[in-house]
Amino acid sequence: MAGGQSRKSRVTTHILDTAVGRPARGVAVQLAARTPDGWQEIGSGVTDDDGRIMDLGPSDLAPGEYRLDVEAGAYHRHQQLDAFFSQLCVGFVIRDTVSHYHVPLLLSPFAVSVYRGS
Fold first, then answer.
1. What are the residue boundaries of the Transthyretin/hydroxyisourate hydrolase domain, all occurrences included (predicted)?
2. Residues with Cβ within 8 Å of residue 45, at least 6 apart in sequence
3. pTM (two decimals)
4. Separation between Cα atoms, residue 97 and residue 86, nearest integer Å
5. What sections of the chain are H helices per DSSP?
6. What does the pLDDT look like over 3-24, one tens digit per residue?
7. Is 5 within the bounds of a domain?
């Protein structure tokens, strides 16, 4: 499911560029689900001017393992910066299918911090 729809998905993200102290605009992110045959992409998007993707994937998700694949290298190349991380893979488990899962990242060329937001 591509970004651009006007509803909030079960999983959202917000990426801040801590090297410059502002939202990371234009970061491509894919949402994947673990299936018996491996990982399957179920959604994708690009961060907006505020560094957010609110329509990353389906509004309903089954319990299971999921991951965000964040294209950090492409973002930093666009900023004309050398960076250590080319792609970040953030895996997490969904148990409660009613809850919202917000997964923010604090990103710089040589460090990353991820947490479960609200």
1. 11-117
2. 2, 3, 4, 28, 29, 53, 55, 56
3. 0.89
4. 31
5. 72-78
6. 444 567 899 999 999 999 999 9
7. no
